[in-house]
Amino acid sequence: MSNSKFPLLNLPSEVIDRALKSMDRLELIAYSFASKNATKQVKSLNVLIQCFVTEFAGSLILTLHTVSARAIQFRFDLDQDGNLNRTSENVEVSLLGVAEETFKWTNQGKTLIEWFHHLNQLFKHSARMSIVRFHTNQPVANLGDIRSLLPKRICLYISTYNPEADDNEKKYAQRVYEEFLPNATYLYINLNPFNNTIYLKDFRFRNWDFLDITQLNHFRLEDLLELNAKQSIFRLSFNFSSVNLNRFMKLWRKGSNPRLAVLWMKYPSRTAPDVNVVLKGIPYHRTTVDELKKMHGYYSESWIDSFDDCFKIHRNDGTLAVIFLKLFARVGGLDEAQLIMLVA
C-alpha cells in the first residue's frame, strides 16, 4: 500500500498515535499492511481481543473475537494438500455479529502462512486465548510453521466428521496431536479418532487445564483415577456403571485426583445414575440448585437449573464437592445419563 492510501504515514508520530487509538480493530488491521512501521505501531498498541481462532476446514479461517459482540473473520481457499505457502486470489473478510457484513480484500501479496503470521504478530500477546481447530479430512502441510508462530499456551481442537475415521485420518490426527502437544493446555477431541490405549494413556496423564473428548470407546475406572486434568468432559459410547462411579467417589475422598475441579461424564443409559449406588457408604447431604447458587459463584451457571438431584460430599481433608445427576431424553437413540462433579 502506498502512503497516498494512508496519509497517516506522513503525519507526526503523536498524531498517528491518537488516530490509531480512535480506530476499530478492522481499520487497524488494514492500516497494519501499509508498511513495516505501521505493523509495529499497531502491534505496540496491545489491542485486546478475547480469542484468536485458527481453523482448517476446507478453508483457512482466521477469526478474531473482540471484547464487543462482534468478530472479524478472514477466509482463504485451501488446496487439496493444505499448502500454506501459496497465495489466495482474494481474501473474504466478514464482520460477524448482529449486523453481518462480508467483503473482499486483495491478498496483499502475501501467502497464507504470511497472513497467519501477520495477524498473529498483531494480537499474539494481547489475545486472552488462542484456539487452533483441525479437521482430519482437511490435511495441512505446514504444521511446524503454524506451531512456531503460535503463543506458548493454546487450545487445541481435533475433529473428525466420521466416527469410523480411516487410517489416513487417524495418522493425521496423531501428527497434529504430537506437533502441537508442547503448546496445548486445553484439548478437545471430537468423534475421537484416537480410540486406542496408547493415546488414551497419554491424554489422562498430562496436566491439562481442560480436556474434552467425545465418543470414547475405551474408558475404565483406572483411566478415571489416573486423570490429571483440572476440568474434564467425557462423552462415552457405553454405559459407565454406578458401581464404578461409587468406587471413584470413595477413592477421591481418600485423596485421588488432587487436581480435579470439574468432571462431567455423559453416557448412554435407560436410567439415571442411581444415587443409592453412586453414593453408597459416603456421607452426603442433598441440596438444591438455589442453595448452591448462594454458596459459590461457580455454581451460578445457568445449566445447573436442568439438574434435579444435587448432593454435597466432602473429601477427608474437608474439600467440598457437589454431585449433579440426571437422565436426559435423546431423540432417535438411547437416553443419556449425566454426572457432574464440581470441586470447590
TrEMBL record:
This is F-box domain-containing protein. It holds the Pfam family F-box. PROSITE patterns: FBOX (PS50181). It comes from Caenorhabditis nigoni. Residues 5-52 form the F-box domain.
